[in-house]
Amino acid sequence: MARTHLLTGAGAGIGAELARRLRARGDDLVLVARSEARAEELGVEHPGASVLVADLADAAALERLQGRLPARLDSVVHAAGVVELGAVADLTASAWTEQLAVNLVAPAVLTRLALPALREARGTIVLVNSGAGLFAHPQWSAYAASKHGLKALADALRAEEAQHGVRVTSLFPGRTATAMQEKVHAQEGKDYDASRWIDPVTVAEAVVGVLDLPQDATLTELVLKPRA
Questions:
Q1: Integer CA distances (angstroms), 80 to 134, 161, 217, in order
Q2: Neighbours of 223 (CB within 10 A)
Q3: Entry pTM
Q4: Which of 176, 188, 212, 214 could form a disulfide with 198 if both were Cys (CB 3.0 to 4.6 A apart)?
Q5: 221-224, strands of its sheet edge to edge
């Protein structure tokens, strides 16, 4: 029987690769797009997927998805994210607000809306975190704060939802060869060589492994690092 997955970040990188793999094997997808125009693009990129429109930076827009989600969800995968590097002395309030809104508040709100459907299916929540969710380097304060918060969200959620059979996994990929990583290199003033970093396909396959884990176990955390 086909399973149903709610995904954010399906437009690029890890999320896009995951969406392709799940759709190719016959699973149903519900994707979140930030605008009607982006929704049309996602519909073309992932034929057969259902697309809902809500800007992840706008919690009120997410709240309006109430009642529009499927009655049963086998998983919710939070793969979307934004990054803006800078020293604490230089980062603006808007840089802090956007990263916290997209990387932390949006997953919390969307998960709350999806919990009844997840409980119905005894489903799995995957929060695609980052190495920055485990350690904060200089220039990474706002992004790392959002990802540390995402880990806290996962830890609390895991304990709360165990009684309902809902599993929660935090995935901590190291640097991955995505458009976001190219932007990070530009902000760091470094040359970008995608071959040095994890292929997003590898991370997507790790997520599929989490989703397919038999029901007698739960994978709480998974750390992936680029091979030296």
A1: 18, 23, 26
A2: 13
A3: 0.96
A4: 176
A5: 50-53, 28-33, 4-8, 75-78, 124-128, 167-173, 221-224
Q: What is the pLDDT along the chain (228 residues), one digit of tens a residue?
A: 789 999 999 999 999 999 999 999 999 999 999 999 999 999 999 999 999 999 999 999 999 999 999 999 999 999 999 999 999 999 999 999 999 999 999 999 999 999 999 999 999 999 999 999 999 999 999 999 999 999 999 999 999 999 999 999 999 999 999 999 999 999 999 999 999 999 999 999 999 999 999 999 999 999 999 997
Do 199 and 177 touch, CB atoms closer than 8 A?
yes
Q: What are the Cα distances from residue 81, in Å, to 26, 36, 143, 184? A: 26, 19, 9, 13
Alpha carbon distance 183, 49 (integer Å): 28
Q: What residues form DSSP beta bridges with 124?
A: 75, 167
Radius of gyration of the chain from its Cα atoms, rounded to whole angstroms: 17
Distance of CA 119 to the CA centre of its chain: 19
Q: Quick check: is 143 catalytic?
A: yes
